[in-house]
Amino acid sequence: MAYSPPQRDEQAMRSFVENMARLLADWGFPRMAGRVVFTLMAADEQALTAAELAERLGVSPAGISGAIRYLVHLNMVAREPVPGSRRDRYRMVDDSWYEVTVAKMSLLKTISDAADQGVAAAGGENTPAGAKLAGMRDFYAWVQDNMPALLAQWAAHKSRLHHPPPA
Amino acid sequence: MAYSPPQRDEQAMRSFVENMARLLADWGFPRMAGRVVFTLMAADEQALTAAELAERLGVSPAGISGAIRYLVHLNMVAREPVPGSRRDRYRMVDDSWYEVTVAKMSLLKTISDAADQGVAAAGGENTPAGAKLAGMRDFYAWVQDNMPALLAQWAAHKSRLHHPPPA
DNA sequence: CACTCATTTCACAAGTTTGTGAAAGTACGA
DNA sequence: TCGTACTTTCACAAACTTGTGAAATGAGTG
């Protein structure tokens, strides 16, 4: 049996990109933005031009343009002007997964705040409706408050992997 | 200045329900299901019939039916047959917010697994693309692994409020 | 100064989601 | 067994999303 080195499987990559785009769509991402993100993630190059993205995905440059605008706005993708060329190149922002996740978590705060307005509308926590809504509010407020500590642990965990403590 | 007791504000409640339904829609809930959930949460009664839901929301009974089916399937709402009547009543399942949030978090595992497939398609962690995808996979796997502990803390926190330890 | 080519903008077509009205289904009460 | 009242199912209409082609924009280059 011959040794077979790890090798890039373009076809698997295509369906991977498509799968991920669908998952991200559940998180509220526009479909095309998801595709662009994972084409960048899946590229061995560190940055790609809009034309390269369009070609690899087999979609029109128009779609890429809109997706890029969205992603740059979210600070997930950085635009890198190439000196001496009209092509810009685009690359994933470092730690953007971390950031996006944190941002998504902040939705919990929004929910908690909205629930609090419901408590007020219900006439306070002593009404049956108010009590139910207050329970919901407290849960999400608590999760939101404790999430930063969890993510800080991740940062610690990661740096421990890179800089193991002396035995 | 006269004392004014807390009082239910129906108009504020209506916009609260609509707001929340929109927020839940971002989490992938069908719009109508969100409305039903918050109409139940906002009710001083513990359970409502389909007809009551339709009337309070000013929507057709048909819409309620579909939403209820969805919510019962998700185990967020329980169907309570009323003896001696053909009306069923529907109530929120206790702790369903907690459960729904846990379920949503399991999406992180899905993402992590998908990322791992991307690593394979890229030809392993030693390729540039594979390394990027592996970083993403590890982050979501870690968050997923540590989430249960966080939510367990909530359970502890809540029971502490209800049964304060002796001084 | 005009030419070239990557990118962006715009209007539209195709596909999907969402809520309704009408009709069928179901179980109680007389 | 029939009538009544609630609920569910179904097919469709309206609204929204998404991606495309074609034209406009803008930055280098001869």
Automatic annotation (TrEMBL), chains A, B:
Q: Which residues form the HTH marR-type domain?
A: 27-87
Q: Which Gene3D superfamilies match?
A: HR1 repeat (1.10.287.160), Winged helix-like DNA-binding domain superfamily/Winged helix DNA-binding domain (1.10.10.10)
Q: Does the keyword Transcription regulation apply?
A: yes
Extract the InterPro entries matched here: HTH-GbsR_regulator, HTH_MarR-typ, WH-like_DNA-bd_sf, WH_DNA-bd_sf
Name the coiled-coil region(s): none
Keywords in alphabetical order: DNA-binding, Transcription, Transcription regulation
Specify the domain of life of the species encoding this protein: Bacteria
Q: Is Transport there in the keyword field?
A: no
Q: Which Pfam families match?
A: MarR_2
Task: Write out the GO MF terms.
Answer: DNA binding; DNA-binding transcription factor activity
Q: Which PANTHER family match?
A: HTH-TYPE TRANSCRIPTIONAL REGULATOR MJ1563-RELATED (PTHR38465), HTH-TYPE TRANSCRIPTIONAL REGULATOR MMPR5 (PTHR38465:SF2)
What name does UniProt use for this protein?
Transcriptional regulator
